[in-house]
Every structure is written in C-alpha cells, then in structure tokens.
Design a protein that fits this description.
Blueprint (H helix, E strand, L loop, with lengths): L11 H17 L9 H13 L4 H19 L4 H4 L1 H17 L1 H10 L7 H23 L25 H26 L9 H12 L6 E12 L14 H10 L9 E3 L13 H14 L3 E9 L2 E10 L3 E7 L13 H7 L1 H5 L13 E4 L2 E7 L6 H9 L4 E6 L9 H16 L3 E5 L4 E4 L5 E5 L5 E11 L3 H41 L13
Parallel strand pairs: 1-2, 2-3, 7-8, 8-9
Antiparallel strand pairs: 1-12, 3-4, 4-5, 6-7, 9-10, 10-11
Helix pairs in contact: 1-2, 1-3, 2-8, 3-5, 3-6, 6-7, 6-16, 7-8, 7-16, 8-9, 8-15, 8-16, 14-16
Length: 528
C-alpha cells in the first residue's frame, strides 16, 4: 500500500453489505416514504465503504450502492413498460454510480499525502469528496443524450428545513453541502480527537448553515386566480380509449369552472389527444371552452409542424387559437423518441417498435405572458432539468405551471417523486407552482413549499386557487450554473492535478534514489 494511503475501514465483504444498506436507506429518503434525514446517513454508508479502497474495490461497492438504490427507486418503470427498460435504465445509472465512485476512493487515498493536518482531514478532504459526488450527479443528469437527473441527493429534501438552502445555491449546491457534512462527520470520528471541540467545528458549521439558512426572499406581486383540471382520462400509452376520450374527460372535469371568475384555465400534459393546430374540430372545442370560461387556456398536445413532432404547451385565446407555444425541451429517450433507433432495434426490436412517435426537442422559451403575468413552464420530466426552470424564471416568470401525464405510472411512487421535484422548484425559485397531472397527484404549492390545494391520484376534479405571484430572482437562478461549474469542474480538475503532482513527486523520488551513490562497503561493484 502506498505510503500515507489509508487502509480500508471495512473488509470488502462488509463494505459491499454497508453499500447495499446505504442504497436502501437513500431510497427511503425520497417519496413515497420521504424520511429525508436518512439521505446523509445513506451518503455516509457509501463513503465509509469507499475509504481506503482500490479502484476495483471502489467499483464493486459503487455497483452495490447504485444497483440497490436505482433498482428500488425507479421500479415504477415496470408498471406498464416491463422489466427490460427498468433493468436498462437502472443498469446504466448503476454503472455511472460505480465508475464515479473510483475518483472518490482516489480522493481518500491521495489527499492524506498532502499532510495529516486537521485542515486537510476536516475541510479539504470533505470538500473534495463532496465536489466529486456532485460532479457525478451532474454528469449523470446530462449524459447520455439528455441524461437522467433523478435521485439527486438535494432533491430528497423538498419537505425538510434544508430545502431553503437550494434557493441560494441550487440543488447541486445543496447536494454538495449535504455530502460535505457526511464526509466531515466521518473524518471527525476517524481523527479520534473528540474531546477537542475545535475538530468538530467544520461539520458543525456546515450543519448550522444547512439547518438555519432561511429561504431567499422574493417580492409579492399580487395573485392569479387559476382553475386547474385533472380529468383522469385514459391518457396512458397503453390505455384503451375511443377517439378524443382524453379531451372529453378534461372537458367534463372542467364543467364546474364555468361561471367562476378565473384568470387562466390549466390542463395537464396530454390533456388533448388530437392536434388542435391541425384539427379544426379540436380547435373549435378549445375556442368554446375559453369563451365560456372567459379566460385563456394553457393546454398541451402532440403537434406537428413541418416534418417535426413536438410535445407542445399552448396558450389558447378564444377566437385567436394558440397565441404562444412552448415545446418540451428534453423529450424522454426511449419514451418520447428513440435515439440511435437502428442500434436499439437490433437489441430489442419489439420494445423499440412500440415507440412510433419521435418528438423533436423544443427551442422556444419555457414562458408565457398571460395577460401581463409571466408564467414559467415545464412539461413532465422537464421539471428535473435545472436549466429549464432557470430559463423560465429569468424570462420573467412570476409563477410556474407544470403540466404532466403520469398515467403510465398509476399507483406507483413516480408521481409523488415528481411532485417532490416540483415542490423543490417552488422553494428554489421563490415562486408558487401549479403542478397539474392527467391522473394525479396535482397540487398548488406556495413559494415556501407548503401545499395550498390538491387533488388525490386516480380521481377527476378541479382546483380553483388564488395563486401568489412573486418577482425577484433567487441566487440559485442567477448563479446556479456557475455553482455547478465550480463544484463539478473544480473538483475534477483538482483531483487530476493532485494525481499528477503525486505521480511527478514519486517519479522524482525514484530518480533521486537511483542517482544517489552507494555508500562504501555496501558491496556494490564500481565501474569505470
């Protein structure tokens, strides 16, 4: 073992077992259980198992942690799609989790060689470990294709007091601080100087920041009276339905809104099962609804423009039709389109053949001006992509309206996990969120993350709510991208630099050893 490198804290077999426990524990931190204090405990399990590990050992314990977490966390995929997509997605995320565990293990091996001072052990090492963990999350959330940023540590805290930190740092910054805390507590215990209060200060400082930081304030700007409709129609990919059955379900559930004083009527993603931009009959139905409600509509349907098909939200005015469009920025790979179809058809032709529609990524901003009120948008899984949310807020959103269709995941944790992401976005941006689903769970969420109103899953109904409006940008919106860059790239580059410096130092040491003359009497023959 190299000089200064820590020995593994745990034998490999026990480290694998602790990693499995950590994966199960991390899932419990998310809905539907939602025991948020377990998230740092799960992180600690993963880190303890990595300390002192070789690259191969780190890969193995990372596989155990990642597989346990993702196979449980996204088991909802099997509800309609079966085990192949579940194993495929959980498998690739597990591989990334495992490979991303190697740099963390290297940090534990290399950092002690900089010195065994308290500053290195209690501050620098936890910061590097936290940065590498966050960098792994950012990578997994952006690649391959558009990535899968589901299961981020920070997102587990939507109903905890720690969530307020996200309004300052973004979700990535919250992940960083939570992992830093777990790593700092581990090093404090390993240092063994528990009676020296000063050694507890780094972990205590981070814990204090996480627990007492208030939400960044935004300014009240009035209210918007919203009527949101959950039709509970047959909107799943494999649901049996007659023509326009989803549209009829939405219309039926919208009936009680007529005669109410509303500023806007909101329908979910997939609330219309025909293209109103091309179908005059559907357009006439929407015109009539907007006229009777005496309010504009925000609706969603698959639309075709030229050779491209989009998942499109529309601002619909009576007599004018769609006056503004927003197309989903990140269509779901293997769900809304098939990247590299030729390749995947060779592997699973029957499954790939089920996905006939090929959605094109949208480029128009996630923002509507609704009679002078800025409305930010996110369609279904776009809620998990930071940039979509930040773009909406920067464009002038005073409230967010998220449209989703969870029908393919009825009676699973998926809709509650997604609802938690919506709640975190409310806190992060300091804006209220109206999260409307075809089948539930739908809620109006206040800027502080509390629930204003809601509809249970599996029922048709409507919400009428005076939704608070806010102006002013939180630091998360303004500098969130920079925070991600500093944490992700900074930690990766530091580890590379540290590894290079240690390798160079070792090479020089070997060179100096070879160049040192042998002492007299050593028995080494001299040559001329």
């Amino acid at each position: 073992m190299p000089v200064g490198a820590p020995r593994p804290l745990l034998p490999l077999w026990f480290a694998v077992l602790v990693s499995v426990v950590g994966g199960v524990t991390l899932d419990l931190a998310f809905p539907d259980v939602g025991w948020w204090p377990l998230a740092p405990v799960a992180v600690a399990c993963a880190l303890v198992a990595l300390i002192g590990r070789s690259a191969g050992g780190a890969l193995l314990v990372g596989l155990a942690f990642g597989a346990t977490f993702y196979l449980i966390h996204i088991v909802w995929i099997t509800r309609y799609l079966g085990v192949i997509p579940w194993f495929a997605l959980a498998g690739i995320e597990t591989v990334f989790m495992a490979v991303g565990s190697i740099p963390i293990a290297l940090a534990y091996r290399w950092m002690p060689r900089l010195g065994r001072t308290a500053a290195v052990r209690l501050v620098a090492l936890p910061a590097l470990v936290a940065g590498l963990w966050t960098a792994r999350e950012l990578f997994m959330g952006s690649w391959p294709y558009t990535g899968f940023p589901w299961g981020r540590i920070g997102m587990s805290q939507s109903e905890s007091p720690l969530a307020h930190v996200a309004s300052w740092t973004g979700v990535a910054g919250l992940t960083f601080l939570m992992v830093f805390l777990a790593a700092a507590v581990i090093e404090w215990l390993r240092l063994g100087r528990l009676r020296d209060v000063r050694t507890a200060l780094p972990a205590a400082a981070i814990a204090t920041v996480l627990l007492v930081t208030p939400q960044f304030p935004t300014s009240a700007a009035g209210e918007l009276r919203v009527g949101a409709v959950q039709g509970n129609g047959p909107s799943g990919y494999f649901d049996e339905r007659t023509r326009n059955a989803v549209l009829r379900a939405q219309l039926d559930a919208s009936g009680p809104l007529l005669g109410e004083d509303l500023d806007v009527v909101l329908w979910p993603e997939g609330g219309i099962d025909s293209d109103p931009l091309a179908n005059a009959g559907t357009a006439a139905v929407l015109d009539a609804l907007a006229e009777r409600a005496d309010a504009p509509l925000i609706v969603n349907a698959a639309t075709t423009r030229g050779d491209d098909t989009f998942n499109t939200s529309m601002l619909w005015q009576a007599g004018e039709g769609a006056v503004a469009l927003h197309d989903k920025a990140n269509p779901v790979p293997m769900g809304e389109y098939v990247p590299d179809r030729w390749f995947f058809e060779m592997l699973v032709p029957d499954l790939v053949g089920l996905i006939q529609r090929e959605y094109t990524p949208g480029t128009n901003p996630p923002f509507f001006d609704v009679n002078g009120v800025g409305v930010g948008l996110a369609i279904c899984f776009d809620v998990i992509y930071d940039q979509v949310i930040w773009d909406g807020a920067a464009a002038g959103a005073e409230v967010f309206m998220f449209q989703t269709n969870n029908a393919d995941f009825r009676d699973t944790d998926e809709n509650l996990q997604q609802l938690a992401f919506a709640r975190m976005r409310a806190i992060e941006t300091g804006r209220a969120v109206v999260n409307i689903s075809t089948v539930g769970t739908s809620q109006v969420i206040a800027p502080d993350g509390t629930t204003v109103a809601g509809l249970p899953a599996g029922e048709s109904g409507h919400i009428i709510a005076d939704v608070p409006l806010r102006t002013g940008l939180t630091p998360a919106v303004v500098v969130g991208g920079a925070v991600q860059g500093v944490i992700g790239w900074g930690s990766a580059l530091f580890l590379l630099g540290l590894g290079g410096a240690l390798a160079l130092s070792r090479r020089r040491m070997l060179r100096n050893t070879k160049a040192t003359p042998a002492p007299e009497g050593s028995g080494v023959a001299e040559t001329e």
